[in-house]
Write a structure and sequence with these properties.
eight-stranded mixed beta sheet; 289 residues; 37% helix
């Protein structure tokens, strides 16, 4: 993990803007992944798992001995990789202690391990045949630096496989941005910080080709049918809302969720069979030549 001094020194976060935090805590607060709730995240585990398997399904199987799952979360999907590539050693990396505590409960395997680490700075001790990152790189800044760094860790003919949300123009995100730009949330939370760092599909295609990779790149829109009251709010409470909710006290959280939840109910009305929730995702599988 980044040390506190490194985080502040690199200027990735503003300091002292949140009235709840000291400058030091505020620097860590907005984009910190330390406040993940594994239980909330896995409420829609089937829907969240589908893109992972769609991504891994497009990866080659030849000569796979070393695999890293970056942003492994609660580890349940990492466990499937040792079954997919039984000769490989698999490491799951995440910077959330809560997620790794959940991963520790996954059925053990002698070729599987987990490590606390920040994707932005983590380096493998050996070249990797496969690097997988499912729904994690959108949180990591500076992709022009990050993507070459990841490719540089591949073994010859190694594969970098990535999936990221690509739905930032949808109501889940536009309503959130709208609210965070209004009072009282500007006073409470400080100026809005950039939360997502996804580039365009063309940028990834050009960058990966320039790095000497062949590229398979695509988008998929999943039409999830979610069940339960205000199901889309429950979905985003496990992901997009985490940086915001982690900086609000209980009373403020309830006030924020009341307003935001009403907007989501209007945008995603519940039907007789559940709530239809379109979710666009961007994928690429890049093989280093």
């Amino acid at each position: 993990d980044d040390t506190l001094v490194q985080v502040v020194a690199r200027g990735r976060f503003s300091t002292g803007n949140c009235r709840h935090c000291s400058p030091v805590l505020c620097a860590l607060g907005f984009l910190s992944m330390s406040q993940w709730d594994p239980h909330q995240y896995q409420r829609f585990s089937n829907e969240r798992s589908r893109p992972f398997f769609d991504l891994v399904g497009r990866m080659p199987d030849d000569d796979v001995h070393t695999v890293a799952d970056l942003g492994c979360g609660p580890g349940n999907l990492t466990r499937t990789l040792v079954e997919r590539w039984p000769e490989a050693s698999v490491v799951g990396v995440d910077n959330s202690a809560e997620m790794l505590a959940s991963a520790a409960k996954v059925a053990p395997h002698p070729r599987m391990s987990f490590a606390l680490g920040d994707i932005a700075t983590w380096h493998s001790e050996q070249p990797l045949d496969h690097i997988i990152s499912n729904a994690a790189l959108q949180w990591v800044p500076d992709h022009p630096r990050l993507i070459p760094q990841l490719v540089s860790q591949l073994a010859p003919r190694g594969v970098l496989a990535v999936q990221m949300p690509y739905n930032f123009a949808e109501p889940t995100h536009t309503f959130l941005e709208e609210l965070l730009g209004q009072e009282p949330w500007v006073t409470i939370l400080g100026p809005r910080q950039q939360q997502y760092f996804v580039q365009t599909p063309a940028w990834y295609a050009d960058t990966l080709h320039d790095l000497g990779c062949s590229v398979d790149l695509w988008e998929t829109v999943y039409y999830h049918i979610l069940t339960g009251p205000n199901a889309v709010l429950e979905w985003v409470k496990g992901t997009a809302l985490r940086p915001t909710l982690s900086r609000l006290n209980e009373e403020e959280q309830q006030a924020f969720l009341t307003v935001y939840g009403a907007k989501l109910r209007a945008a995603y009305p519940e039907g007789p069979h559940g709530t239809l929730f379109p979710f666009r995702r961007l994928f690429f599988v890049a093989r280093w030549r």
